[in-house]
Amino acid sequence: MSWLFGLNKGQPEPPPGLPEPPPPPPPAGGSSGGGDKPKDKWSNFDPTGLERAAQAAKELDKSRHAKEALELARMQEGTTQMEYQSKIKEYEAAVEQLKGDQIRIQAEERRKTLNEETKQHQARAQYQDKLARQRYEDQLRQQQLLNEENLRKQEESVQKQEAMRKVVHISRTCSFCLQEKISEDLRATLNAFLYRTGEQSNK
């Protein structure tokens, strides 16, 4: 720090970038011939040290502003990070919303598919039931026709049997009548013969 106050003039120059100090002022109250006067205690003072100190203070002040700027930059970066995090959260929320929508759509599609499958199953069941009822009705009709045919045949058989009984009865009746008639004729003939035979015996 000795270079700030002008001490050790033989030392190296101050760091680059600092302005060159102005030349020192001439000694007070002296002329060119005043070299014979005795020098006071300030005669060897170098004012460039103060100037260098002031310049250093400015640099320090700039450094404080730099710290403030750095702090501001950090705050801005924090704000940016917060905004970024907010965007990330919004994006994640949008992704979750999209996933939820996809799940809802898939569930709706599954529900529609299930409803359609249920309708098709019901339609097939109704069709199978209709076919079964038709087959049952056809079987009933066929059974009814068969029963009617059997009944008709039975009735025809009964009628034939009845007719046969009538024929037999008539035949028997006629035969009996014929036999009765023949017997009566025979008895009459026999009686007449016996009568004639008896009259001839009496004579």
UniProtKB/TrEMBL annotation:
Keywords: ATP-binding, Coiled coil, Membrane, Mitochondrion, Mitochondrion inner membrane, Nucleotide-binding. Residues 12-28 have a biased composition (Pro residues). Residues 34-178 form the ATPase family AAA domain. GO terms for molecular function: ATP binding. Residues 1-48 are annotated as: Disordered. InterPro entries: ATAD3_N. It is found in: Mitochondrion membrane. Pfam families: ATAD3_N. One of its GO terms (cellular component) is mitochondrial membrane. Residues 53-166 form a coiled coil. Belongs to the AAA ATPase family. This is ATPase family AAA domain containing 3A. It comes from Oryzias latipes (Japanese rice fish).
